[in-house]
Amino acid sequence: MVLAITAMATINFYLDTRATGYDKPAPLKISIRHRNRATFIPTGISLLPEQWDDITRKVVNHPRKVAFNNILAHRILDVESEVLRLSEQGILSFMKMAELRAAIMQMLDPQPEIDTTKLFITRFRRFIERKDNARTREIYEATLSRIYAYDKHCEELTFADVDKLWLTSFEKFLARTSPSVNARSIHLRNIRAVFNDAIDDEVTHHYPFRKFKIKRAPTAKRSLSVEALREFFDYPVEEYQRKYLDMFKLSFYLIGINIGDMCKLKRINGGRIDYERSKTHRLYSVKVEPEAMAIIEQYRGKAWLLDPLDRYDDYKQYARRLNGALQAIGEVEIGKQGAKSIRPLYDNITTYWARHSWATIAASLDIPKETIAAALGHGGNTVTDIYIDFDQRKVDEANRRVIDWVLYGKK
Asked: What are 26's strand-pairing partners?
């Protein structure tokens, strides 16, 4: 049952059970549909589904049903009158839904005009624009796209609108397409970062994450024991896989350097590779051991130290090919029809395992935690954390010990 069709706008009541389900009170809203778009006006009333008659549009089975129905009658009349006024003035046809909602909210509860620079989505976009790292911007843009997919009216959201109920519903929406708890948590942490930034700038004092806790699942194992790593390094691979396994080895010999950073290396300076990690902008300096140099010499590039970017447009294409090849290393099995299949040694291995494996093996050798942390770049944010405050020779010695133990069984 539609309550009113006023000047091309359809006005109705809508019990919003999307976030609450059918066992908890849900907010009752006034829906306004205009030019194939919709906006929703809160009534301040929450009801269980059995307390709302969707046919008569009346509150039923509620101890305050008479009072609530009187409130709703006056509220819907006010909304209809405002929509009619905007139509008669020739304004309605040109209004965006965000503008229509703001006009009605202002009429129902007069407040100072909303500063659009303080709207949630506006601040989210500004937050992204301030990020220098292209990959970081991509991650936040991905979250923004999921917000748009979930909430078609997200551009109207204030920070106060993004409350515990909104976040809970958004998390359920993400779960439909992303079974990974940790993948969903990335989007929620990105939203939290925008809130923290807005609070720092005194745009809002609202902080829903005091009540809404971001879930995390234990991270799956991404490291190999020394025995497993030796087996992997020595496995009789197909010829096409050899270069990919060599690149995994090189990453390990360079203390788990990220594949993107490794592809973009330019030169060796005084027997060392100096680079800035693209993800964190930390400076690293790694001594090039003979085992690493042998691989570098074999795969030297033209424009880069190594050749992958001579053959690929960007490192991401190469990384996908590399990880696919690593995951295809294993025993070849012949089926009844002569079809070949692979039983992989590690079916989810990626280049990240080189970094985690290095740290795991270093710890097994009782290398001090502070040395491992320095090798991996954990700690402070300044150049002196690596080059002055911590003796770099300790990291070099640790890397040599790890390589000797893995390749030669020497502790």
From this structure: 47
What is the H or E stretch that residue 233 is in? helix 226-234
Helix, strand counts (H, E) of the chain? 16, 10
Strand partners, 112: none
Quick check: 322 pLDDT over 70?
yes
What distances in angstroms separate CA 52 from CA 55, 72, 73, 299, 343, one per listed residue? 9, 12, 14, 71, 57
pTM of the model: 0.55
Write the CA distances from 194 to 117, 136, 172, 198, integer angstroms.
Answer: 13, 13, 20, 6
- The full DSSP string for 153-215 is TGGG--TTTS-HHHHHHHHHHHHHH---HHHHHHHHHHHHHHHHHHHHTTS----GGGTSPPP
Inform me whether the pLDDT recorded for 49 exceeds 60. Answer: yes
Q: Which helix (H) or strand (E) holds 5?
A: strand 4-6
Please state the length of the chain.
Answer: 411
CA distance 252 to 14: 58
DSSP secondary-structure letter at 113? P
The three-class DSSP label of residue 227 is helix
Q: What residues contact 249, with CB distance under 8 A and at least 6 apart?
A: 233, 291, 295
Other Cβ atoms within 10 Å of 224 Cβ, number = 24
CA distances from 363 to 43, 70, 200 (A): 59, 70, 39
Element (H, E) at 285: strand 283-287
Summarised one tens digit per residue, pLDDT across range 350-405 is 999 999 999 999 999 999 999 999 898 865 444 444 444 457 899 999 999 999 99
Q: Which of the residue ranges 65-69, 335-339, 345-349 would you say has the lowest mean pLDDT?
A: 335-339
